[in-house]
Amino acid sequence: MLRALAGQAQGWASNLSNRGRRLSRSISDSVLRHEVMWINACQLWNATNANQNATLRTGTGPTSISQAATRITRRWFDNYVKRYDLPDPDGLPLQFNQLSAKFEAVKDTKHRHFGYWVTLSTLERGKRIRVPVEPHAYFAAAGGIVAKTLTLRTKDGALYLDIVRDVPTERWHRPGVPLLALDLGLRNFLASSEGDIRGENFIDTLGRYDRQLQATTKGLQNAGIVRLTDCARYRRLAVRIRRYIKNNVQRWVRSLLQAHSPEEVILEKLNFVAENSGLGRRMNRLLRGFGQAVFKQCIKSWSELKEFKVTEVEAAYTSQMCSSCGFVHRANRKGNSFGCLSCGYLAHADVNAAKNQRGRSAAGAPTSTGSRHERWVSALREWLVRLRTGLLEASPGSTLHSRLVWRACTGIAVLMNEKRSAGKCGAARKVLQEFTLTLDRVSDACLYEKITWLVTTEAGSPALAVSTD
């Protein structure tokens, strides 16, 4: 019970820290913002100014904490405590082991009216409580052995008995793909590197729920209800949204995994909520918290059951990169369609992103490679190296050689045209000039001349427009 209470307190403090970061970002004064951020990092929300400065002297941070920063955090902390309940030890679950509880199937008892029975010991000798348990189709079909520890908890005034089965792990019954990459999104929930799409137009359904959620919230706020969870209608709507997300996430994940029986699953670092999703703040928070937790738990459960490996890769530029040639440009993707401006490769945008994830995992790419600009520079270098490798392998004057040179000219022209129009061509020019130094003047003469001419050509010239087309 102490561990459970400590977990409640840690969760409550974590939520408070997250809201404290939002509070600090809303302060325009940089000095005051730094002080509030430090107070939040040290979790000294309700401490006096003297205690905050005493803690400051033992660590690194601002030179001193002002009275204004202390007043802001203490007032904000008081309002938070009034609005959100403190951890409640009365709601802790009770755990029973095999000495104080017994789980039996109906065939092992003399009572025949229910599928299972649980016998719980009490403090009085000989007076036990028999609790009937209705059978559940999923629980009965799961197999395995029932664990010897039972948990009794309360929720919304009702009693729940949590019973766990220890299910033995087993491999897939048939051989499948060695690597299966899954791309997570809102427009289409899941796309695989094998070309599958699950949860098409997922955001449309979320949008309908979001409109209902916003209308309900607005009505309750106009009625003067501050705590929305006090309204039964709001709670029912939130439960319906969670049930929709959970049921469909589990169904879609199960469908893809059973269809391909992977030995390893590749995921990008999850970011379930897009900035331009058009969904409200409450729906975004629900997706970011509940939706990601359901997806992660589902993948984890399947990996433990089927013993496949789960790997996360860096997600930067996977939706803008061509899985065929490696060219990166934001104009490659338009909605669900992907068309490479360099090589002309066409595919579903989410499937193309999943293939890029699979390629990064197969190449052993690190999960983090620095800032976003550094990742873009790395992607541009990789594209140029792939082009040069293909040119060296192709016969000079052949159709393949001419096509590769055309791809290089088209891609570089599009890239330089975009960077010049945005006034950010310095980094691209530097990478291209460094690449030309690695070229051989004899074997790579054509590519060297084209890159040098395209880098030095001014934007908007007729020759550049022809190359772009």
UniProtKB/TrEMBL annotation:
<dbReference type="InterPro" id="IPR010095">
    <property type="entry name" value="Cas12f1-like_TNB"/>
</dbReference>
<feature type="domain" description="Cas12f1-like TNB">
    <location>
        <begin position="295"/>
        <end position="356"/>
    </location>
</feature>
<dbReference type="Pfam" id="PF07282">
    <property type="entry name" value="Cas12f1-like_TNB"/>
</dbReference>
<protein>
    <submittedName>
        <fullName>Putative transposase</fullName>
    </submittedName>
</protein>
<keyword id="KW-0238">DNA-binding</keyword>
<dbReference type="GO" id="GO:0003677">
    <property type="term" value="F:DNA binding"/>
</dbReference>
